[in-house]
Each structure stands twice: as structure tokens, then as C-alpha cells.
Design goal:
With about 375 residues, the chain is an alpha/beta fold. It is built from twelve helices and 13 strands. It has a seven-stranded mixed sheet, with helices on both faces. A three-stranded antiparallel sheet has the order 7-6-11, with no helix packed on it. Strands 10-12-13 form a three-stranded antiparallel sheet, covered by helices on one side. Helix 3 packs parallel to helix 4, helix 3 crosses helix 6 and helix 9 crosses helix 12. The protein is globular and about 65 Å long. The structure holds pyridoxal-5'-phosphate. Pyridoxal-5'-phosphate binds next to helix 3 and helix 4.
Length: about 375
Amino acid sequence: MRIHLSRPDITEKEIEAVCAVLRSPNLSLGPKLAEFELAFAKYIGRKRAVAVNSGTSGLFLCMLALEIGPGDEVITTPFTFIATANTIMMAGAKPVFADIDPVNLNIEPAKIESKITNKTKAIMPVEVFGNPAGIDKVYEVAKKHNLAVIEDSCEALGSALDGRKVGTFGTMSVFAFYPNKQITTGEGGMILTDDDDLADMCVSLRNQGRAKDSGWLAHARLGYNFRLSDINCALGITQLSRIEQIRAKRRQVAKWYQEMLAGDDRLIVPAEPDNCDMSWFVFVVRLADTFSGQQRDRILEAMKGCGIEVGNYFPPVHLQPFIAKQFGYKEGDFPITEAVCKSTIALPFYNNLTKDEVAIVCKELKEILNTQTD
Ligand SMILES: Cc1ncc(COP(=O)(O)O)c(C=O)c1O
């Protein structure tokens, strides 16, 4: 590949921080864990932060802490990464989907209410691609119906809506640190909440069900090993200390794309909504309605053919075969999501992508589009 879809941004500072842990006796459950959690809680502005080994583990622990299980329903978006719905299913509950807003691509708050039943326990919105639009309205619907919100903020570290940071809307909120994310710990995730009981439960569940102040071999409940090592935490602390620099770099890359693709009516280019401070996760353009899904797939292949890595973020979650089969979802259930999913092209996007590389991606994309529209 000439240009990759995503690359981590690791400096000497990160390497030194990781090496310092490797030279210490505390590779896990050491001082870096508490330091990372404190720094993260402070950055987002919440009382408690609980580090875990992935965003998926974090979302799953939220389900357990909120006592969501078999017989319960959780309302979520069909336009997301599969882990959102998977964690509902991992808890034994049913993911109930509501279609998305065609502009910001997040769950449409007005479509949530008709999905609420006496089995609904929570709403799980996602700030997809880092876009926080509509999260405040989801929160209002939840409040009106006395439902918990599990905010899947895995793609949106640093985004804010009307000055309020993403990760502060949920009863519990979760971030993820896979290497394509705004900050990385290699693998990792963070649960945020203002509720001490929920946070303490997650601390126990991530560590084999050990109770606070009990011994290493005393277990109060069924638990897991979802711990994040001090090696990962040291990486996270250093990355978090650079978050504003990282966000600025990503904003610049997004701006280059916006400028170079402006005025091409074959494409819908993402823009920052008015009242949002967007933390760019990926840069996903959409093809105009005149293109078919097959044409989009051919364009993806052609881009890859000239050495540019691209992605089809995302296929509809409700049509993933194991989910469709278990819950009876079918094509046509969520038409906006299905139309959007056939039109997306995720372009290469990362902190250190250069202006020249962005120019190559845009030139190749336009040339390939010409071959489709000739
Ligand atoms: C919306 C969303 N939810 C959940 C996850 C899961 O995070 P992880 O890959 O760290 O388990 C991701 C990560 O890609 C995501 O994008």
C-alpha cells in the first residue's frame, strides 16, 4: 500500500514512558493505572474512570453493572461498529435498532420513543465517526422515560456539543484506544461515570470479581480479567497529554480533504456541525444517490488497486447474518442506514498524513469517479 487507512502516532515520549514501566516492578495494577484513570476522568470531567483492556470490555461491563440481561432490550443504532450491538448480546439482552439521521449519521432521537417497551432498560447511542450531534436529544428522551444511557463514545474522544464534552451524557460512557483511535494504548478502553457504586462494580468485574479490600483469592462475584496493564496505561497517559495537539493535526487533515474535495457534486463530504467541536476519528465521504452499492464497491477496489487503503464503514449491523438470524431483522427495516451503508468510502486518515498524500488520495478518487460517470 502507498497510503494506509490508519497509522498510530508514537513519539519518543511514549517509547520512554513505556520503557520506564518495563524497568519498574509494576507491570500491572501499579501506579500508572491510577494515574491514567485520574487524568482521564479529569480530562472528560467525570467523577470516576475505570480502565479496561478494550472498548468492548468496557461496554460489556456497563451492561453488567446496570444489571441488563436476558429478557431486557437496549435501543441502539444500526450504523456503528459491530461491538456496540455485540456487547448488548454478550449480556444476553436484545439490541433494538432505531434508524439514523441522514446528515449526522447518529441514531435519530425522534425515532427512539416508538421503540421503547416495558422491556427497555437502556439506550446506547454512538457518536459515530466522532460526531456528537444529537447526543443531547437522546439524553432527554432517556431522562423522560427514566432509562439509563450507555454512551458509546469509542470514536469521539475530545468531541463536544454546545461546550459539553462527549462522555458526560451517559449514565456510563465508554472510550476505546485501538491504534486507529484519537489516542491509543495498543488495546484498551475506559469507562466513565459519576456513580461510585457503578464504578466500584466495574473495578470488581474487571478484576476477577474481587471485592474492595478483600484478598487476592477472595471473589465476591463472577468476574473477568479485563485489566489494562501499566505498560498500556503509560502509553495512554502520554498520548492523553498530547490530545489537543493530536486533535489539531486531525482537524488539519480533515480541512485539507474538505478543501480538495469541495464542489464535487458526486460526493457528500463530512463537515463539522454548527454547535459541535468535532474530534475527527475517520474521514468518510459518501457517494451521491446516483451511484449504486455495486459502483461503490468497484470504487473501493479501484482505490486499493492504486495503493490507497480505503474502508466501507459500516455495513448495516442489523443485516450481519448472526444478528439478522437471531432477531429476524431483514433488508428494508432501516432504509436510511441501508442507503448510507452502500455509499460510504472511508479515506486514509491519521495524525501524520501529509498534504501531499491527501492530494494523491483526492486525485485518484476523482479519476476513479470519472471512470464511473463517463
Ligand atoms: C463505536 C465503537 N464501539 C465499540 C468499539 C470497540 O472498541 P474495541 O475495539 O477497543 O473493543 C469501537 C472500536 O472500534 C467502536 O468504534
